[in-house]
Design goal:
about 45% helix, 22 helices, 5 domains, 6-stranded mixed sheet, Cytochrome Bc1 Complex, Chain A, domain 1, about 20% strand, about 675 residues, elongated
């Protein structure tokens, strides 16, 4: 029995030695899939990350350009994406179809995609075709002539992929009135990181893509497809020397270019941002971000570990614990240039919302250093490290890390060994980093909860509030009139052209003033109201704001005169809604018939309410002691003036007395 045990120990020892020897070779053990990468610089500055995976049957080849759609010039939005399409188009005497078949016939899969801060091209193929695929990808990335006919042919696929179409009426209303750049609220990346992104512009995708020329594409390629900033990744069972030689023969021939100016560094507003919303949904939506500015390679590695550690701990308690508060809570990293947002996001059971929030707060506090034991941390770290190694064994999975996180050459000069980094990180390092990153002034919290009332009840409350509002406005604005003493009623006759022009001006004023008022309300809501975590407080404030807007609309309508009423001792001008203006008989100083030039071309137009032009026939001019006046027309002017004379106790001045040669009709 003892001999058997000794033999078994010897075999285990030999196995350990063999594994150690294999780890020292270029073909790294799957126990550390991130190890064994070699960084090779070509003569033009292009960086090659090479790794040989002896057990894989496929090779993954990819190249990353650390510039994307954020570099699109104003008016040429879509240029980065268009450039990506053009590189797969006709080139070096081959049609797009021939280029496609060259890689697909031997079983290859290829694609490219453009993101805000980088562009990716890749091909996956069997090992036996790996070197030819490397040559194929170089031809795709090599300088293109951007022939006009090829550009025109590729324009339609770009339009279709971006769903771009000519602007129609409602698109123009949206662009010029509802959501113009000047009245647009700042988005996340601008508000929290100070990044100037195309989202802040008025982007007409259809017009922009149609305005892109071959010269624009060539200029973008020459500016941003710079070899010294590119990262070429080759992962597969390929011989190192052959890969390096082929890379030098192909990508090493790309012409060196000056590097473009790097984007401005991210700026920290130095304050948290919180927003609470309510919507008709089944469960609360929870999103919490922590902002990281200008991260280093070490920061990104620690953020990756922290997000996975946080995800494990939160799901252990909220999904797999006794109280099923969520189907899954997902911490992940959002990248954009010099900014990263560590994001915790998920849908929470509405009955477990309070519990879930308390758990999230506790776990964040634990990571900052409160109550996290060494033993517990080591167990969590071991699990995370094993999961990392298990989930990243294939060339495609290792390549994807480059596309998702390691694409910035100013941050990553070498492919990081995440396995070793995860295994080596200590509890003290995690806690110190968490205290720095998971700080209150770096937080962006957004929560959307279900409306606590049914839509039926909310509708009834809305109707009741509207009825109450109407009654209050009526009580405030309406002055009682003794209708038993009325002697005459006449509607103002306003010429159609005059009505169209004046109503057009009035509506234009109302539209501009309303949009500016709405912008002010949006600004107020963004800076204060949505930060109040109370449905009822927010609801009351927004209701009062809506009531205020409606009241201003009523005030505007109350300035539109509709008819004139004659009483025994006064003249009352009745407006469209609620308002009326009484003029005592003793306050009337002039009643006359006047023409256009007598009012519109004279000082009388000041403080005058002109309701007619006086061009076709004279209008009635009624002046008051306080300097105000009305210039108007009614259907039966003769009858109206007869009654008005009796009310005012004075005769009107005929038009002929004011303007020789003009007769009253």
């Amino acid at each position: 029995m003892t001999r058997f045990i000794l033999s078994l120990c010897l075999l285990l020892a030999l196995d350990v030695v063999a594994n150690c020897q294999q780890n020292g070779q270029n073909e790294t053990s799957p126990a550390d899939p991130f190890g064994g990468f070699e960084t090779i610089r070509l003569a033009n500055g292009l960086k090659l990350w090479y790794k040989r995976t002896a057990d894989s049957t496929d090779t993954a080849i990819g190249i990353v350009i650390p510039f994307g759609s954020d570099r699109d010039p104003a008016g040429k939005e879509g240029l980065a994406h268009f450039t990506e399409h053009m590189l797969f188009a006709d080139h070096l005497g081959r049609t797009e179809q021939q280029i496609k078949r060259e890689i697909e016939d031997p079983g290859g899969v290829y694609n490219g995609f453009t993101l805000p801060d980088h562009t990716v091209f890749f091909v996956h193929i069997g090992n036996q075709h790996g070197l030819s695929a490397l040559d194929w990808l170089y031809k795709v990335l090599s300088p293109h002539t951007m022939e006009p006919e090829v550009v025109d042919r590729q324009r339609e696929p770009v339009l279709q992929e971006t769903n771009a179409r000519p602007r129609e009426l409602f698109d123009w209303i949206q662009a010029l009135y509802l959501n113009p750049p000047a009245l647009r609220q700042k988005g996340l990346w601008n508000r929290e990181f100070g990044l100037h992104t195309p989202e802040s512009r008025d982007v007409d995708a259809f017009r922009s893509i149609h305005s892109i020329t071959g010269q624009d594409l060539t200029a973008f390629y020459d500016t941003y497809y710079v070899p010294s900033l590119m990262t070429l990744t080759v992962i597969g069972n390929l011989d190192r020397e052959q890969v390096v030689e082929k890379a030098r023969e192909t990508f090493g021939r790309l012409p060196s270019r000056p590097e473009p100016q790097q984007p401005s560094p991210a700026s920290d507003p130095g304050r948290p941002y919180r927003a609470f919303y309510w919507d008709f949904r089944a469960n609360p939506f929870y999103q919490q971000m922590f902002k990281v500015y200008d991260p280093t390679a070490e920061d990104i590695i620690r953020l990756t570990f922290l997000s996975r550690l946080l995800g494990k701990r939160l799901n252990d308690r909220l999904r797999f614990g006794d109280r099923k508060a969520t189907y899954g809570i997902s911490p992940f990293l959002m990248f954009r240039g010099p900014a990263i947002a560590l994001t915790i996001q998920g849908s929470i059971d509405k009955d477990q919302y309070g519990y879930a929030r308390s758990v999230i707060v506790q776990e964040l506090d634990t990571l900052r250093g409160n109550g996290y034991s060494q033993e517990e941390f080591e167990a969590d770290r071991t699990t995370i490290s094993r999961q990392l190694k298990t989930a990243n064994t294939s060339p495609k999975e290792l390549e994807w890390w480059v596309f998702a996180a390691f694409y910035d050459p100013s941050v990553f000069s070498d492919y990081p060994d995440l396995s070793q980094d995860f295994d080596r990180i200590t509890l003290q390092e995690v806690q110190a980093f968490a205290r720095q990153v998971l700080a209150t002034n770096r937080e962006v919290l957004t929560i959307m909860r279900p409306v606590p009332l049914s839509d039926g009840v909310l509708t009834l409350i809305g109707i009741a509030a509207l009825v109450l509002f109407v009654r209050v406005v009526r009580a405030v604005m309406i002055s009682p009139i003794e209708m038993s003493r009325i002697r005459y009623v006449a509607r103002f006759r306003i010429p159609t052209a005059f009505k169209v022009v004046s109503m057009g001006c009035l509506l234009a004023f109302a539209a501009v003033a309303g949009r500016l008022l709405f912008f002010a309300c949006q600004l107020l809501a963004d800076r204060s109201i949505i930060k109040i975590e109370s449905f009822w407080v927010q609801g009351c404030i927004f209701t009062l704001m809506a009531a205020g807007g409606l009241f201003l609309l009523i005030l505007l309508a109350s300035r539109l005169p509709r008819k004139v009423l004659l009483f025994d001792d006064r003249v009352v001008v009745k407006y469209l809604v609620y308002r009326s203006r009484a003029i005592a008989a003793g306050d009337i100083v002039e009643i006359s018939l006047r023409r256009f030039r007598d009012v519109w071309w004279s000082a009388r137009v000041w403080r005058c309410l002109p309701l007619t032009t006086g061009l076709r026939s004279p209008g009635i001019y009624l002046a008051c002691r306080n300097g105000t006046s009305i210039f108007f027309q009614v259907r039966d002017r003769k009858e109206f003036l007869a009654v008005l004379e009796q009310v005012a106790g004075q005769e009107f001045t005929p038009a002929s007395a004011q303007a020789p040669g003009v007769r009253d009709r």
